[in-house]
Amino acid sequence: MGTPANPQKYVVHNAPSQIDGTGAFAGEAIPARRKIGEIRGETISVHEAWERVKHVERIMMIEISPRRAVDASRSSDPLRFTNHSCTPNAVLRIRQGRIEIYAMRDISPGEEITCNYGETHHEGGMRCQCGAPNCVGKL
């Protein structure tokens, strides 16, 4: 069995983020409405995901269905570092069990790629640091 195809459609680099920790940054111009790439990881039950997040500070867990989640903490995909923003430039979509990220507008080289996380396990208990003018203040 060969190496799986690279799910990244555009160059994305990881670097320190002004939002939080490490971020995902466009390494080239990304046109609006284009798939940037995917986030892969270990597929586990949602129950197991909730158990794992109790023991880590930096969470890279995405629920893909009411019963399944993906733990991207050991993934090499650069988009796993996509930070939250209340004014995102990308959207995360779950399609056939795959976690895909699409540009909502043109993204310039060097610009941080962000998504709106929506509901999170933080349940409003974590301060949002996106800095957007319309920031809701919490995740």
From TrEMBL:
The keyword Methyltransferase applies. Keywords: Chromosome, Methyltransferase, S-adenosyl-L-methionine, Transferase. Its main location: cytoplasm. This is SET domain-containing protein. It comes from Sphaerotilus uruguayifluvii. It is found in: Chromosome. Transmembrane segments: none annotated. Pfam families: SET. Residues 8-118 form the SET domain.
